[in-house]
Amino acid sequence: MRLALVLPCYNEEEVLRRSIEQLTILLDKMVAVHKITPDSFMMFVNDGSRDATWDIIVEQFRKNSYVKGVNLSINVGHQNAIMAGMMTAMDMSDAVVTIDADLQDDIAAIEIMVDRYREGCDVVYGVKVSRTADSFIKRSSAVMFYKLQAALGVNTVYNHADFRLMSRRALQQLSRYKERNLYLRGIVPLIGYKTATVNDVIREREAGKSKYTLKKMLNLAMDGITSFSVRPIYWIIAAGFFFLIVSVLATIYILISFFSGHIVPGWTSLMLSLWFIGAIILLGIGIIGQYIGKIYIEVKQRPRYNIETILDEKKEQSSNATTKESTDESLVSH
After folding, report:
1. What is the span of the domain harbouring residue 270?
2. What is the predicted pLDDT for the residue at 329?
3. Can you name the residues that pair with 204 across neighbouring β-strands?
4. Nearest partner of 80 among 210, 176, 182, 175, judged by Cα
């Protein structure tokens, strides 16, 4: 099999040469035991870096036969950079592994991913089993985010980020998902096909600092929630019904207080108005939200289904025949 490693890069000049050195050793080892072909490669996606990242990629391309590069014209963000790399590498390889250029993920897991692919898995997820290298805040926020996603009904793999292997046919299906606000951790599980997980032990960065700021993590979290769940709309409707019930109970209490004379003039109408109107407003927002939610789902134009196998006249056809739509060449330059 021909393997492609896709690595998004944003201002990674301090760690890039060391990462290339380690990945070259890994690829040489896998070629030597015939797990991958010698024309396997690593594709670095320069996401609008402002340092010497692209210069280093060009330099290594001339020296190292494994190295290829994609230079994005502007910074488009981590998820879009990964997508650009995968779509570029899709027709050049049998499977693609995405991993961050700082190599905090366990690169030894890549060989196990290839083993799972050879066993028939189309998607292999790297699942973090140890995050001691991450800060306490990052670990805690990640756990809370995964739990919140589960509560909202978002189908993701727990403790998985963007370290994964995808076969060519899985990538072809992924290319059919057209949303602009990408959240690959939520989209990839929608594809289906046979999957597996491998353990991923996070380690310290060897140089530089993380480019995933708190703001970027919060933006990614918001995309993950709003792109895959309309459950908050149902919560608004539930709150509306709750306050409607409260308003009925309050009405009973207020009427009892009114007829017993233990009430300030005007208080009855004021309290009834507050509870009742508040409940109606929440219900109205929820109903409107239902219509907006349906629009929101429709405009994504996600495929209605993914075909794994077609049986036609006793001949089995793989969905590898899915036609890849052309990538926006204005985003990527080789």
Report:
1. 231-299
2. 38
3. none
4. 182
